[in-house]
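User: Hello, beginner here. Can you help me understand these amino acid letters and fold codes? It all follows right here:
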Amino acid sequence: MHKFFKDFNTGGLLKIGNESLLQPYQKVKQPDLYTFIRTTDSQAKVVIDGIPYTITANSVIALTMVQFLQFLEGKDLIVYQFNREFYCIKDHDKEVSCAGLLFFGNAHIPLIYLQPQEQRKFDTLHEVFIDELETTDTIQAEMLRMLMARFIIMSTRLLKTKMGFYETPNNTKIDLLRNFNMLVETYYRNEHTVSFYADKLSKSPKTLSNTFAKLNTSPLQIIHERITLEAKRLLTYSDKTVKEIAYEIGFDDASHLSRLFKKQTHLSPSKFKKQFD
């Protein structure tokens, strides 16, 4: 069982379902989606970045897009998956953003155990999620984003209170990628070169490129994706011109942003914006 929401204007994607959503990960791969796995009355087993984990019953685990996931076993799971365009396109407090505590804010896998009272709260929220997915109207996307924000806030509060981290052996490649993502989230509006971030990480640009190639990405691609995401957000949720947006994201010439945006989306910024007129 699974349900999907697709925002064709922004490319936002939300998936909600059970363990069937994890079947594609029986062979290890990166999900390319932020993923929450919630167990109910029984445990589940996964492998994350080559390390096996047992997710205890009545727990929530949060995974980023960059981690390698293999699903081994589990039943009666509740799984949420979404892409950057669905949730990260909106501004959120830093602790519940896509670079927040649950995702890039630590070097551990966040595991959150739910007490009976907390289980009931998450059950109620899940019922509202399902009901909203079956309610198609002009504010459905915003409602679903609000519900996901609530889920993340609830999970973050529990994580901060209990600090229920799994200790993991050092994985320098993954840690480097997470640190890079956090720096991009901080500086992407003004810094667009790999050399800037390499200097911040005390690495050479070549080292970053070679390391990220093993993780099926590149430092420049991550920078460009974040810039494009912000451009989409501003084109969708503001009345700013392409020139104003380009200046806000650190481009002196709007044509530079337009070329980058078209390369990433196959649409010019103006054509993308017209979708909302």
